[in-house]
Structures are given as structure tokens and as C-alpha cells.
Amino acid sequence: MEQLEFLRNNLLEKVNISSEEMELLAPYFIPKTLKRKKELNRIGDVCKDIAFVTKGSLRAYSIDDKGTEHVSQLALENHWIADLYSLLSGKPSEFAIEAMEDSELLLLSAHNLDCIYLKVPLMERFFRKLLEKAYITTLQRFNSTISETAAIRYKNLLQNNSDLLHRVPLIYIASYLGITPESLSRIRKNMSL
């Protein structure tokens, strides 16, 4: 499927965008390929783009004082990824965004985000809905981290995102769940009994 058609289908999940509006938007989305293990954004850089994944997978992560990585976002096809704090504030990012597989993206810069709001006002509604969903997901993750066991968090991830388990290394899934790879291994072993 062509990248812009893939994008249009994603937009149609939240707003009723016309072919004419899509034509106005197309020049603002810049295609980018990213090889596995290459970064879209580095810690300390200002995040300049929001990325729509049309092929492949990406992760956003931070690194603590001990050098341990903490995965905050996982994005497969049909998902958006960015350090929204850095993108919207213009401040240096505390997150790196890296391809876990060879990936194809459509990038929309912060500047162009404002431009498309003017050209296609419907896009403000789309991104508001996208931000609302991101906020709800963040709250749910926070609440599950403090109120559910790691085994329950893993089972929920399995139910809601089974594709992740086939494509994302378990070390990143463990980090995303806030547990060690050894703990995830024990949980997986107990589930198979």
C-alpha cells in the first residue's frame, strides 16, 4: 500500500478527510527510511518531527544515571511516535527514538503541523484526538504500573498488542513493562505451564 494511502486510512479512523484535503496535506509529509538500530531522534536533540510508521517498528527510550534503558513507546505500522514534550516545547529531548527493524516513515515537522492546521482545519481535530488517546494510554500505563502485577501487565499487552511479541525483542518488552528481562522470562515460563 502506498504510504499516503496508508496515512489516509489512519486519518479516516478519527476524522472524515476528503481526497482534496489529502492532496493539500501530502506535500507536508516527508518520506524517510530508517535502517534497523538507526536513530530518528537522539537524547539531547530537539525533536523536530512526529513520525507515522508505514513499515517497520520504532521504540522511544530514555537512559537513567546507571545507564539502564527505559522504553516508553513502541510503534509498529499505523502508529505515530515522537517525543511530544520536546516537539511542542522546543526543549531538548530526554528520549531517543530508534528503529527496531528497517522502517519507512512519513515525517511531519512541528512547523508543518501548524501549516496543515491552517490549510486543513480538520487536522486540528485529528491531532487533538491523537493527543487525547496518548494521554489516556499514558495514564493507563501509569495506573497499571502501580496497581497491577507484572504478569497482569504482560497478559494485557498480549491481549491488546499481540504483534509486538513477534517483532519486538523481549528485552524491550520487559523494559516497556518496567521489569527485568529475567522477570519477563519467569512470567512467560509460568504462563506456558
Top keywords for this entry?
about 190 residues; alpha+beta; Jelly Rolls; 2 domains; four-stranded antiparallel β-sheet
Reading the helices and strands in chain order gives HHEEEEEEHEEHHHHHH
- Kindly, what is the distance between the CA atoms of the first and last residues, rounded to a whole number of angstroms? 41 Å
SS-derived structural category: alpha+beta
Helix run count: 9
The coarse silhouette is globular
CATH superfamily of the largest domain: Jelly Rolls
Report the sheet with the most strands, covering strand number, pairing sense and barrel closure: 4 strands, antiparallel
**Spatial strand arrangement across the major sheet:** 1-8-3-6
Beta fraction of the residues? 15-25%
Instruction: Give the number of domains.
Output: 2
- Supply Rg: 17 Å
Question: How are the SSEs ordered, and which strands pair?
Answer:
Layout: H1 3-12, H2 19-25, E1 30-34, E2 39-41, E3 49-55, E4 58-63, E5 69-75, E6 80-81, H3 84-89, E7 96-99, E8 103-109, H4 110-119, H5 122-147, H6 150-160, H7 162-167, H8 170-177, H9 181-192
Antiparallel strand pairs: 1-8, 2-7, 3-6, 3-8, 4-5, 4-7
Give an overview of the whole structure.
The strands form two sheets. A four-stranded antiparallel beta sheet has the order 1-8-3-6. A four-stranded antiparallel beta sheet has the order 2-7-4-5. Strand 4 and strand 5 form a beta hairpin. It has two domains: 128 residues, Jelly Rolls (Sandwich), CATH 2.60.120.10; 46 residues. It starts with a helix and ends with a helix. It is globular, with a radius of gyration of 17 Å. The chain has 193 residues and is of the alpha+beta class. The chain is built from nine helices and eight strands.
